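In keeping with the milestone schedule agreed at the kick-off meeting, the structural modelling team has produced records for the first pair of proteins. Each record is given below as a sequence line and a structure-token line. The laboratory manager (R.T.) confirmed that both were archived under the project's standard naming scheme.
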Amino acid sequence: MEKMSKGMRTKMRILESAKKVFYENGYDDAIVQQIADESETTLGSLTYHFATKATIVDAIMSEYLSAIKERIQSTYKKDKLNHFKEHFFLTIIYYNNLLNDEKTKRFYYETHLNSALFDFLFRDIGSIYQGFIRDFNLRITPSEFEAILIADLGARRASAMAFYNGQIQMSVNEFAAFLISNTGRMFSIQEDIIYESRKEALTFYGSQDFSDIKALD
């Protein structure tokens, strides 16, 4: 196994400490100096690896997304998954593990208020959505794709805030399924495919324990 460099060890220590600080303080009240102190790192070293608080969030959420994806691919037959179905599975797990814990839910809400997740979502989720186009041979131009992505992320942000404030009265499962179903419709994916993906995703989520996959500690 390749030995981890000192710089990488420092970076990982900062991330693990940030997860604890964000969990206890939320996004708004977390201070970068707190994360440096928790990780026993100088502020200069922290900002060398992560220029802003938002870039730390970006790294945390990318890691969280990857962990969910790896679990799905290791426990479900790959040949039965297309990109949309896989993302349906991922979305159910993603939101359940974020919104069923009050402290993580607060953090997630505050990152949306501050648009701290935008770069992560635009890059990582955009890459996933490109798979929809390939799988279903969708006739969507690059400019249309970018417009759909912006509209989808805007709708998710507004919906997340409304859910947190109690304006949307749904269970977390219902809310997560609504979001990804709405995304499918924006890409003109057939309703029967959306329905079957929803059914399989909820069944899969109910048959497994994903509580060990956490965005924050």
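The second protein of the pair:
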Amino acid sequence: MTDNILQLIGNTPLIETKALLGDGKNRLFGKLESANPSGSIKDRVALAMIEAAEQEGRITKDTVLVEPTSGNTGIGLSFVASRKGYRCIIVMPESMSMERRQLIRAYGADIILTPKHLDVQGAVDKAKELVASHDNWLLLDQFSNSENPRVHREKTAVEIEKDIGIPDVIVAGVGTGGTLSGVGSYFKKKNPLIQILAIEPVSGIPGCTLHSIQGIGDGFTPDNLDTNLIDDFVIVNDQEAFDGMRLLLEKEGILAGISTGAAVAALRKINEHMENKKIVYFITDRGERYLSMNLFGKEE
């Protein structure tokens, strides 16, 4: 029991998704990050960045928090900021789902939209411009803030090890690089032979067109991504990610978002070449925030 909802961030369940692929070749464990209070893995990062800034004296009651994001960090920051009494401005591409915008506004934050064709880099540039022109505005910057990988190294990875020991394979998307780098560095020290596989949208590769897998493949290499940890990339296209969302819902009853669908698509590919492995992937957010995209079925 708690009287502070922020204390419910983290310690998420790990579910063995036995029915997902159904062949029993490998054990597939989904870290249910959608169980965090505002519905995504980014609650961890939001709380860690804000509390570190508080401890360092960089935040006062008049500070305005600013963050560029493809959506989930914006929701998480809006949620944490609302509980702590801070004003928050989220800068995000106009291509992000309507539900994400609605959730951010519901938590009381302001939104500034940037042109779709500029992708997340356009939001980053706009956020930096805003902070540079206003006193007492603070850019938390999930892409380079060391609290991002730290919280996954010291908490998320520890939770996984407590539940199942050291996995053989970690499958993670590359958005900010925080999850992959944090969890990956923790387990690489425990077992250098562990495989760290990065999910990359086929159109998220530099030089390719825009993709629809919100939350990963932002079109640039973030400072928080330690590429030395990556053993291989698993390339996933939009349709494979959408199919992965539907498969997870059909087989396991888990309504999850597009980046999780991409993880399921990656699992389907690597499962063909592996056997008797403990594989961990991340159910990063809830599927409700994508319903307007009509990805789960036909409209009535």
